[in-house]
Records
---
Amino acid sequence: MTTLTLAGRDVSVDEGGFFTDPSSWTPEMAEEMARAEGITLTDRHWEVLNLMRRDYEANGTGPNVRALSKKSGIPIKELYQLFPKGPAKTAARLAGIPKPQGCI
């Protein structure tokens, strides 16, 4: 595990950069991580991030890209435009939750 400093706070992440304790996440951390990946978070991004967090809280894992598209109503093509390096993985990382099951 690694410790990162995000938005002035130290957080523990795994080797993939996913939070080990989702309760330590803040929206400011998501903004900082997104900037580092070249993403400017819009309302559409926040729809996805908030859905990822809700789904994680309800199911113990975030949705994969197909389920994310279905649950959010955002087409897969648009999800890849929002999160070019992989919608489910990137959105999970920015949402401060572990990597969704089924993501490589």
---
Amino acid sequence: MNIAGVNVSKKALIFAVFLILGLAVGVYLVQTKQIFKSKASQEIYNAFEITEQDENGQEKRVACTGNECTVESLNLKIKIDPSQLDTP
């Protein structure tokens, strides 16, 4: 094949077209912002009950906000309610 006075094979032409298309797609993907959202349900926290024992042996529920729990000791008990885990 002769393009603008230069002999070009079909393989070289196809390779050049794929290279240019790949470069264009790569530039587009780099400029596009990716948003990664968790698809997990936030209601899974309802399945867990965390309690701790104070110095008198009394159990009290641990206060949790979002993904963070505040505890006063490391003497914790975690109860899991399996019926809450299978909800979509």
